[in-house]
Structure formats: structure tokens, C-alpha cells
What we know:
This protein is α/β, with parallel strands linked by helices. The protein contains 14 helices and 17 strands.
Amino acid sequence: xxxxxxxxxxxxxxxxxxxxxxxxxxxxxxxxxxxxxxxxxxxxxxxxxxxxxxxxxxxxxxxxxxxxxxxxxxxxxxxxxxxxxxxxxxxxxxxxxxxxxxxxxxxxxxxxxxxxxxxxxxxxxxxxxxxxxxxxxxxxxxxxxxxxxxxxxxxxxxxxxxxxxxxxxxxxxxxxxxxxxxxxxxxxxxxxxxxxxxxxxxxxxxxxxxxxxxxxxxxxxxxxxxxxxxxxxxxxxxxxxxxxxxxxxxxxxxxxxxxxxxxxxxxxxxxxxxxxxxxxxxxxxxxxxxxxxxxxxxxxxxxxxxxxxxxxxxxxxxxxxxxxxxxxxxxxxxxxxxxxxxxxxxxxxxxxxxxxxxxxxxxxxxxxxxxxxxxxxxxxxxxxxxxxxxxxxxxxxxxxxxxxxxxxxxxxxxxxx
Length: 417
């Protein structure tokens, strides 16, 4: 089954807004065994939207539009679909009455333009929206489907999961299983070299990408049944694990911070941070994780050299002699974070994120990371490539991954203590 996605909204073209709905739908549809062959952006123009729908419908089994279903004048997806399919737009008076009741129950005035959300092309069905006022629209056209979903992400996702997934599951026609493996400490070329011969396995497709937390290996397995596809995927997953070992740190939606948190909880341990060039980015990454208060004690943002001394306990004489960007300062920051925050592990980060300030001895992108524990303090001198954001982002991921590997050192081959 092939699908095309159309994101509606002039703001996506004029103001550089990202089509995050399209990203989410692409991944979700692939999990269902639906191949997304094309994505497009269209402004709030009826003729342009209708033209995009006709073009997509000529090649795809499923056309999904997002956006343009609200009550305002620039919400034109309904009219465009009606034009593309040659069907008149009709008002569902029963739904209009329901809308009025929803507004009155919330103490809001129901204005005439709100009733536009009750319009749909003749012969189409509603996809219920349990958390908003604009329902999705489902049109069946000669065996294919044209679907319109609201642009508000929570509403779009809820309608898709509850209204569209049950319908699509019965149309795919083959078993499919999908999984992504997240890999740390390697480049794309290194991963490809290690597992290239596995790509040709029967019923398997593999794609290597650079993700936010390292390399991502996306695996897609097909089979006569879902069980057969999953068995193929499990076999490949196992073989990749044999090749890459501890470098594989997570699967699917699990994040690096979640993995580290799980390992810390298993050991009954905690961590803390002292950050200079990353300015609290590591602490922010950690606290995005629900439940991180159970294992993250806190962090020190010590951008100024005086704060490195007063808050993290760095010796002023060391700062004067070695400079802030140095191994000895990183080690002192890690120890200070551990001691001042009363944690089992401390991470210290100091470096030059750029774009200016570099010297031949200490170039832009040079970062020192240290990890202090009860038994020892480890240190890494690394050179990050990229702009200021990438240098900082890659550094916090590197630091967290080093802690993950340290926590795994005492585990046996089966992951037991």
C-alpha cells in the first residue's frame, strides 16, 4: 500500500515551520506497512490543494492531508477536497448542533463561522476528534482513501490512532515488523562496514541515518504474516547485536537518558553535572525524561571561571595555570559535581563551542569531559565538528553515553549484576 502526505498551510512555506506532522505520520505509516512515496507542502489556496490531491490520488492508495480544517477563512482543505473529487460540499446539521453544544458547555460563544467545521464532501465519513472541535474527514474513491486530519498535533495523532489505524490494518495485505536500533560511539561508515553483509537477508530492508543521539539503524522486515516478519527482525537484531555489542544502546523510542536512568536505578545510584560550555544542556536533556528526579541529583552551570571555583570547588591556581579548557579542570568539575550534589557519579564538561575563541593549541570544538565515581575519574579529550549547537549537543550525548558504558562495566553477559 502506497501513501502520499500533503501538509496544508502557508506558514510552512513562508515562515519556515517544520512539517512535524508529516515526520510523525511517515514513521507511523511505515510501522503499519504503508510506504510513503511522497510528501508535499501546499499553501492555503483551494486550487493548489485540489491539484495536489488529484496528483497524489493518481499514484497512491492513501492520501493524507493535515491542516486547514479549522473555522477561519484560510482553512480551505474541505473545499479543496470537494473540488478535487468533484463532489459538492455539504453541511452535517447534526454535527453542527453537536458543535454548538460543545461551545455552550465550555461557556464559549458559538459564532456562525464555527459551523464550517461541520462541512464535508458528499459521501464522506467523519473521523471522530475526541479532544478538539474539527473532526477528520474520510473519503473513499475507487478503492483508494483520501483523508483529512487537523493540523494540531495531539488532535491529528489521536484521530489517526483511533480512527484510521483500525481501517488501514485490514488493508495492508502482508505481515510487517519495524524496529530502529540506536548506536553510540560510531560513525555511519563504521556501522555500515560492520553489518553491510546483513542487508541482503531475505525480506529485510535497512537504512542507516545520523540521529540526535548517534547512529540510527532502521530495520523493516516483511513476511507472509506479522509473526514471520517479527521472527526475521528478531534474527537480524540479534546478529547486529553480536557485531556491535555494547554500542547498541536503545531500540525504537527509548532515549539515551532513559537507558542511563534505568541503569542507575538498577544500581541504586545517582548522578550530577557541572557544565561550562554546554551551559546546562546535559541537565536539560536528562530532565526531559519522566522520573529523572529519582536518579538525577542536579547540576551546576559554571560558565564563569569564578563560579567554577565557588560552586564546583575548582582550585583557582589550576585555572590560572592550565586554563578553563583543560583536563585538570574537567576532572575537578566532575569531582565537584559529585561532592557538592552528594551523588554517586559526577560529569564535568568544559570546552570551546565557538564560533570564536579558538587557538592553535585549543581549537574551536575542543572539549574535555570527565566522569567521576567512587573508585576513579575518567577523562576524554575530544574534538567535535559542527556549529556551536552541534558541538554542544554532541558533547552532552557523548558524556551521557560514557556514563552508560561505565554503568555496564559490572554487568555480566546477560545483563545481570
